[in-house]
Amino acid sequence: DFVMTQSPDSLAVSLGERATINCKSSRSVLSTSDNQNYLAWFQQKPGQPPKLLIYWASTRESGVPDRFSGSGSGTDFTLTISSLQAEDAAIYYCQQYHSAPITFGQGTRLEIK
Amino acid sequence: EKQLVESGGGLVQPGGSLRLSCAASGFTFSAYWLTWVRQAPGKGLEWVANIKPDGSEKNYVDSVKGRFTISRDNAKNSLYLQMNSLRAEDTAVYHCVTGKGGGWIPECWGQGTLVTVSS
Fold first, then answer.
1. Main-chain phi, psi angles of A88, to 5 degrees
2. Sign of the Cα pseudo-torsion (A62, B32, A56, A6, in order)
3. Strand partners, A108
4. How many CB atoms lie within 10 A of CB A87?
5. In this predicted model, what pLDDT tens digit does every residue of A10-67 receive, in sequence order?
6. Chain-chain contact of B110 with A50 (C-beta, under 8 angstroms)
7. Would the pLDDT of B102 be above 80?
8. Prior bond to A8 cis, omega within 30?
9. Chain A, 20-59: which have a CB under 8 Å from a chain B CB?
């Protein structure tokens, strides 16, 4: 199974500043057949289901603000929020969909400082 | 607009059974992989199982293999999760999820139904 490990577990960032969340996979999620990284990022706010932000490691979902970006390849990935807004306070999860069982990272809680 | 509505959750004793349902609308149900994802209270997300559009392929997380069965009825636009031999650690909100473009990327999530396993 793919083990996804996020860091840090939590962070506090000031409004307007940059927030960076890391995700490391125990195995490469890069597919040799299509050269795509099977990695997604989600945002979850209290009482709501998760919301898809990024897929294929760096493709922003429709309607997601461009301050959210994803990068990385193989086993190491990053979600960056370029200029933190108050509404970005949430828990963020990475997920690999390369192989079953699909696995999530443990989550990173992002708070506003 | 895609919509998923789960039902069937509730309180059940350890060792008991429960069947969850997910009613879908707003998309061509029979063309999509479907998934169950759960979240224990205050915990992270755990993928449980998924099923191919025609039902011919099913995948499960190890912790539920042999106890849970995912199924679908494309004529009724419905997804199911039969849960047997329930354990306390199965307590969670269970979400029904569609895959983006019919694939495995979780795109649209239902609000979920709470399953509580307790004596």
1. -85, -5
2. positive
3. A92
4. 10
5. 999 999 999 999 999 999 999 999 999 999 999 999 999 999 999 999 999 999 999 9
6. no
7. no
8. yes
9. 38, 40, 42, 44, 49-52, 55
Q: How do A10-13 and A108-112 pair as beta strands?
A: parallel
Q: Is A41 left (phi over 0), alpha (psi -120 to 50) or beta?
A: beta
| Residue B59 distance to chain A (closest CA, Å) | 7
CA dist., res. B12 & res. B117, Å (int): 5
DSSP B22-82: EEEESS-GGGS-EEEEEE-TTS-EEEEEEE-TTS--EEE-GGGTTTEEEEEETTTTEEEEE
Cβ contact A32:A99 at 8 Å: no
Among chain B residues, CA nearest to A42: B106
- In whole angstroms, how far apart are CA A102 and each of A13, A70, A111, B83, B106? 30, 19, 27, 19, 10
Cα–Cα dist A73/A69, whole Å: 14
Residue for token pair 């294929």: A56
| CA dist., res. A53 & res. A67, Å (int) | 11
Residue type, A92: Y
Report the gap between the CA of B63 and the closest CA in chain A (Å): 11
Band of residue B101 on the pLDDT scale cut at 50, 70, 90: confident
